[in-house]
Amino acid sequence: MADAAGRLTKLAEEVLGTPLPVRIRAWDRSESGPPGAPTLVIRRRRALRRLLFKPGELGLARAWVAGDIDVEGDLYEALDLLAGLIWERGGDAPKPRRAAVLRALARPEIRSAARELLTLAGAPVPPVPPAEEVRRRRGPLHTLPRDKEAISHHYDLGNDFYALVLGPSMVYSCAYWGTAQTAQTAESAESAEDTAVTLEDAQRDKLDLICRKLGLQEGQRLLDVGCGWGSMVLHAAREYGVRAVGITLSEEQAALARKRIAEAGLADRVEIRVQDYREIHDEPFDAISSVGMAEHVGRTRYAEYAGALYALLRPGGRLLNHQIARRPVADEEAYHVDEFIDRYVFPDGELAPVGRTVGQLEDAGFEVRDVEAIREHYALTLRSWVANLENHWNEAVRLTSEGRARVWRLYMAACALSFERNRIGVNQVLAVRTRESGDAGMPLRARDWRR
Questions:
Q1: Whole-angstrom Cα distance, residue 175 to residue 207?
Q2: DSSP tag of 230
Q3: How many Å apart are CA 270 and CA 258, to the nearest integer?
Q4: What tens digit of pLDDT does each residue of 8-53 get?
Q5: What is the pLDDT of residues 314-332, one digit of tens each?
Q6: CB 437: neighbour CB atoms within 10 A?
Q7: Residue 182 parent element (H or E)
Q8: What is the pTM of this model?
Q9: Can you tell me the distance from the alpha carbon of 30 to that of 66, in angstroms, rounded to the nearest whole number?
Q10: Are 177 and 195 in contact (CB under 8 A)?
Q11: Cis omega (within 30 of 0) for bond into 284
Q12: Beta pairing, strands 270-274 & 31-32
């Protein structure tokens, strides 16, 4: 089994038809590949079996989460290089290379190389997926019980773990960075400390931007859909004097949000409920914020979501919908969620193009008044979260598991690159339930947000 790395490099290049852009170090300590490149460390032969039984992204993800593979060197650079091996560009959106790889393996000249891979992999038995993987789910998508289960998987990891990653703001959505930060490329911002504005400043500015877009005034009633740990309702009640209701499906989030609200002396102005948006019946509200929640709604339920929020607003009320978007594809019916995200991060989560989101809000009756794309801001935010996780790695592992910490490091770093490369985006859509008279209650110059 000598020189496993060299044999793997040769096989990969034959199958992919391109030089391998990363270096490989195998379990037998052999190395191969371009000097100075990030090194893909294959710690166990089991990693090859994972790829054989699940070629592509999910096989690699399972090997990463289980610690069968690792990366030495710049993780972002390694992921960027490996993305070219997993995804092929062309047309309207990236497509998995799995079909191309399977076609290559069917070629006679490649079959002998494939047999060699089987030899290198060892016993032809599919490895058990890591414990952190969500097992197969049953029943229709986006029912109330299934949505609650999916939310619990993602958010009930422990509030202390999220505090390590998110920092004191406890805001789990894209921050809003200053002009000096967004003028840089995310790659050049080596850490949050290299910028004049901290993550906490940027998250506070995001919350305040939302409050100003909603035109909040003292005494108004705000609904925050997917309130997380209560940061939005806390800011709105403290700084703008509103009465607020925050809803979440996570028991752990709700417990900490209530504690923070009580400590801030705002329990008489802010209520936190463990409740689905489909279960609210005490309208009307003057304003609704939905920040990073609509990704969980799903295509089949989005019209219901938009209609429900429209019904909850008083005439003249505003909605701020802050949502991650994907690039459109030619065959929208063929779209499916990326397997790693679905199995390890956001079960049942779905992304939609921003145009569809705007259209469905309009179909529900809203007048869309403003769309602001802030994808570069999310890349900076994610890099800050990755730095927080890496700086508190041992504590994060203690609070969850090594596999779960590895999930989060991979997920956040890969997402940062996806925002930087315009594979996904994030948008704030401001919409109004315009009065029958046609009065939207909006200023003529609606983009004076930064005053």
A1: 8
A2: S
A3: 9
A4: 998 888 877 889 999 999 999 999 999 999 999 999 999 999 988 8
A5: 999 999 999 999 999 888 8
A6: 8
A7: helix 179-182
A8: 0.89
A9: 21
A10: yes
A11: yes
A12: unpaired
